[in-house]
Specification:
This protein is α/β, with parallel strands linked by helices. The protein is built from 15 helices and 13 strands. It has an 8-stranded mixed sheet, with helices on both faces. The chain has a 5-stranded parallel sheet with strand order 11-10-9-12-13, sandwiched between helices. Helix 1 packs across helix 3, helix 4 packs across helix 5 and helix 8 crosses helix 10. It binds nicotinamide-adenine-dinucleotide. Nicotinamide-adenine-dinucleotide binds next to helix 4.
Length: about 400
């Protein structure tokens, strides 16, 4: 019998499972991908995150963490599977199929008294739907009050996950007060931040609110950057000057907003309450329009050359991570290739090979070499090594710095 069974061993589930294991809990990590399970059982990792390799190795070597493709009986189940939206739906409807499949897979192993925690970022009402899916799968003869359901969203920042996993305040939202209390007691195993109790629906909306807040503020910065490009004003200088006002704190613009969270979660609010979420929707649209603005700038510069060489620095959705999900940088490079704007050189220190969409269509090389060969240099991600690029190397080149990395 395990203490904790974590379903989904990705960026959230793997650090969570490992940290419980290093605190002495018997943990089973479950993932539907066999190669992920094999990698973890070998004490290795399949994703990039500072110091995660050390944590996972320690957890596996201690004998407290094992991985499997199917859940086993445990006192607590934590669901940390993907919650994307349907790309083909007009209102970006949430895709809860992973949460539903993971929940239904628990029917074979749960017993009365178990705590079931949803960590995946989810639309309001998902924890209640989990309970319904589980009871639908269990069939008649089971009593809902014998099981404890809670939503405990995750706030950790890629690149700083292990530190934030421990130090961040967390929210524990239960379908009942007892469920919230039990979730709190569990996270206290490793969490030094405060654990705040509420109901599941408020916890669900709180997580979506946090990411929507970020999205709206980034949209303001991105909109400013497009206004500045139109008026030929340096947006970085403008923001620095405006931020000297004691009550103004404008964020930095970028090539768009990507990743698994900020580019996705606001849609869960919009699709649930479309009439009331006009600002949130507009922010999403502004941020989604920024990559096209960058592509237009590249095209305009490329048209000045007969055979332009375009160096694109960065593919990931943010700095110093290997994650390309919903990455505006990747989208921009794909479009530059697709629209045949020039010969494309890609620099991405966090990958050894180009994503499939760029293979055979662009060349992956080192930063200095790419810049030396390029007519146009497009900075898309502010990875640490790019900040150290020699300014002298950039002279004589057209530079499109979407992150203000060299401003
Ligand atoms: N990555 C982040 O920075 C972050 C931060 C906060 C919240 N979140 C949220 O956490 C959730 C998980 O995100 P992630 O980044 O860890 O995703 P991920 O894609 O890295 O990992 C999810 C894992 O779940 C596995 N999986 C899918 N269906 C399964 C099933 N039925 N049973 C067991 N495993 C299954 C997948 O194979 C995958 O390995 C999402 O809701 C996300 O929005 C992510």
């Amino acid at each position: 019998m395990f203490d904790v069974c974590v379903l989904g061993l990705g960026y959230i589930g793997l650090p969570t499972a490992s940290i419980f294991a290093t605190k002495g809990k018997q943990v089973l990590g479950v993932d539907v991908v066999q190669s992920v399970v094999d990698t973890i059982n070998a004490g290795k990792i399949h994703i990039e995150e500072p110091d995660l390799d050390i944590l996972v190795r320690a957890a596996v070597q201690s004998g407290n963490l094992t991985a499997a493709t199917k859940p086993s009986p445990a006192n607590t189940f934590i669901v940390a599977v993907p919650t994307p939206f349907h790309h083909d739906s007009e209102d970006h409807a949430p895709d809860l199929s992973y949460v539903e499949a993971a929940t239904r897979s628990l029917a074979a192993v749960v017993k009365p008294g178990d705590l079931i925690i949803l960590e995946s970022t989810s639309p309001v009402g998902t924890t209640e739907r989990m309970r319904d899916w589980l009871f639908d799968e269990l069939g008649p003869g089971h009593n809902a009050s014998d099981y404890f359901f809670a939503h405990c969203p995750e706030r950790i920042l890629p690149g700083q996950m292990l530190k934030e996993l421990v130090s961040n305040d967390r929210i524990a939202g239960g379908l009942t007060e007892e469920a919230a209390e039990r979730a709190k007691a569990l996270y206290e195993t490793f969490c030094s931040g405060e654990i705040l109790l509420t109901d599941a629906r408020t916890a669900e909306l709180a997580k979506l609110t946090e990411n929507s807040f970020r999205d709206v503020n980034i949209a303001f910065a991105n909109e400013l950057s497009m206004i500045c490009d139109n008026l030929n004003i340096d947006v970085w200088e403008l923001i620095d000057l405006s931020n000297r006002h004691p009550r103004v704190n404008i964020l930095r613009p970028g090539p768009g907003v990507g990743g698994h969270c900020i580019a996705v979660d606001p849609w869960f609010i919009v699709s649930a309450a479309p009439s009331q979420s006009r600002l949130i929707r507009t922010a999403r649209e502004v941020n989604d329009s920024k990559p096209q603005h960058v592509i237009n700038m590249i095209r305009e510069k490329a048209n000045r050359f007969r055979e332009p060489v375009i160096a694109c620095l960065g593919l990931t959705f943010k700095a110093d991570v290997d994650d390309i999900r919903e990455s505006p940088a990747l989208h921009i490079v794909e479009q530059v290739v697709l629209q045949n704007l020039g010969r494309v050189l890609v620099v991405e220190p966090h990958t050894r090979e180009l994503p499939k969409s760029l293979q055979g269509k662009a060349t992956l090389i080192q930063a200095d070499e790419a810049i030396r060969s390029a007519d146009i240099v497009v900075l898309l991600v502010d990875h640490k090594p790019f900040k150290r690029v020699s300014r002298r190397l950039l002279e004589q080149r057209i530079v499109i710095d979407t992150r203000g990395c060299w401003a």
